[in-house]
Amino acid sequence: VYDAFILRSNRTREQNPVRWVPLGAAEPLDDSIAAWRRMLVDPKRVASDSPRRLRDLIWDKLEPHLDGIHTVVVIADGNLHRLPWGALPGRQPGQYLIEEYALTAAASGQQLYGMLVNPRVKTKKQLLAVGGIDYNTRPKSPPADDQTEQLAADPSSIMRSQDAAGWAVLPETEAEANAIVGLWGERGTVVELGNLEANEDSLSRLLPKSRFAHLATHGFFDTRGEVFGQNLRAQSLFELSLLGSQRQSSVAFRNPLLMTGIVMAGANVPPEKDDLGLPVGEDGILTAEEISG
Q1: Which of 175, 135, 162, 172 is nearest to 264 (CA)?
Q2: Is the separation of the CB atoms in 83 and 4 below 8 Å?
Q3: What is the SS3 string spanning the chain?
Q4: What phi and psi values does residue 102 have, to the nearest 5 degrees?
Q5: What is the tens place of the pLDDT at every residue in 56-83?
């Protein structure tokens, strides 16, 4: 079964700020989520009523407890992680939930608490728009010091189980990013990244400085080891040789943040290797671990 616990801001001094909402058996929800995702990835598939059914099964039960609420942070569980919450139908035909609520997600209660109590980083009203990425050409490498620091911070580049994942070019994403920039208008500054400029280094530097970001590229969650693999030889060399005294636990190689991310320039090009035969520099895969810092 699925259950929801709604924790409202206690600014209203409610006596019971936590509310429990039973969502019912898991199977109908999981089946509807799977059907909707199949429809989204296959444009030839006949449209189903899964989105409306999911609204009935989930959001219509939660919304009565959201009176006066405009921002909702979702900490999901199970297959609810796979639900595109903002794309759920809105109250009126042709509308979506993202038009009615400011929706965001957190991985855990601890992360949400940290977001609430830590000082907010002030960012300029800047839009970062990414599209039209060249996956088949290696971008210019950052300075050597930056490569060493990046590799030490995140072992993802030595965990690639294959030389090239074969990411398909997405030619329409350039027009998509341009359309977003057009809609942005004069609301603030704009930074556009495309072709080889849309690389790991550029995105890592610009994301923290941008209030809004539109990333038109491939994303993945590598549950089957297709992008990253259990390369035990590389893992051993990484732990014993590459970082010297800064040994990394093998637990890092099971970190889910290393198994999800987005695809940047040069991802289809085999990475360069050092004298030990280990990849160095950017590999075109920007993991969640790298993005989170």
Answers
A1: 135
A2: no
A3: CEEEEEECCHHHCCCCCEEEEEEECHHHHHHHHHHHHHHHHCCCCCCCCHHHHHHHHHHHHHHHHCCCCCEEEECCCHHHHHCCHHHCECCCCCCEHHHCCEEEECCCHHHHHHHHHCCCCCCEEEEEEEEEECCCCCCCCCCHHHHHHHHHHCHHHHCECCCCCCCCCCCHHHHHHHHHHHHHCCCCEEEEEEECCCCHHHHHHHHHHEEEEEECCCEEECCCCCCECCCHHHHHHHHHHHCCCCCCCHHHHHCHHHCEEEECCCCCCCCCECCCCCECCCCCEEEHHHHHC
A4: -85, 110
A5: 999 999 999 988 888 899 988 888 888 8
d(CA 262, CA 213): 13
List, edge to edge, every strand of the sheet that includes 285-287: 219-221, 260-263, 285-287
**How many residues are present in the chain?**
293
Buried b (16+ CB within 10 A) or exposed e, 214-235: bbbbbebebeeeebbeebeebb
Mean of the per-residue pLDDT values for the chain?
Answer: 77
Looking at the whole model, is its pTM more than 0.70? Answer: no
Return d(Cα 4, Cα 126) in angstroms, integer.
35
Q: Are 88 and 59 in contact (CB under 8 A)?
A: yes
Short-list 103, 108, 150, CA closest to 291: 150
Return d(Cα 108, Cα 88) in angstroms, integer. Answer: 22
Residue 257 pLDDT:
67
Lowest mean pLDDT among 2-16, 203-217, 221-235: 221-235
